[in-house]
Amino acid sequence: MAMDLDKFDRRILAVIQKDARRPAELIGTEIGLSASAVQRRIARMRDEAVITAEVAVVDPISVGRPLTMIVDVEVERERPELLASLKQWIAAEPVIQEAWYVTGAGDYVLIVVARDVDDFDALMQRMMGENANVRRFQTRVALSTLKRGVLVPMDQPAS
């Protein structure tokens, strides 16, 4: 169930999605609340799992992962236990940045960062070898990054 967020909560979220280290005093000045009110609201949104993490966004190229691949994965059967096993495998792979269970031709879309083609190939060989339910995969290489992020728009909901 979604938490009721007022305009102040949404404005706080808009600010901290761009800079989670921004002091509550500055946020409060910007949106018209005291620093303690901002801190209480942030604490409540953490408790209610509206805020699920506060992380550093790292440039993959700077840490030796210049290759981004978009992988469509198709499974043989959609039996719950087989899907659960594949989901666990995907969740445990640190180079898989995002994973989406989707409609359409494939069943999953994965975003993978790799050092090089050999690194990526080794991952796909492991995926196929350790997950007999994977029928096939199709890979697209990202030539450049136009946009990357996890910011959620903070528009006011329709009433």
The radius of gyration computed from the alpha-carbon positions, rounded to a whole number of angstroms, is 20 Å
- Count of separate DSSP helical elements: 5
Cα separation of the termini: 17 Å
CATH class of the largest domain: Alpha Beta
Strand content: 15-25%
The helix content, as a percent range, equals 25-40%
Main beta sheet: strand number and arrangement? 4 strands, antiparallel
Shape: elongated
The SSE order reads HHHEHEEHE
- Write down the overall mean pLDDT: 94
Structural class: alpha+beta
In oligomeric terms, what are we looking at?
A: single chain
Based on DSSP secondary structure assignment, what is the total number of beta strands?
A: 4
Q: Could you please say which CATH topology of the largest domain applies here?
A: Alpha-Beta Plaits
Uncertain residue ranges: none
CATH structural architecture of the largest domain: 2-Layer Sandwich
CATH superfamily of the largest domain: Lrp/AsnC effector binding domain/regulation of amino acid metabolism (RAM) domain
Protein name: Lrp/AsnC family transcriptional regulator
Keywords: DNA-binding, Transcription, Transcription regulation
InterPro entries: AsnC-type_HTH_dom, Dimeric_a/b-barrel, Tscrpt_reg_AsnC-like, Tscrpt_reg_AsnC/Lrp_C, WH-like_DNA-bd_sf, WH_DNA-bd_sf
Organism: Dyella lipolytica
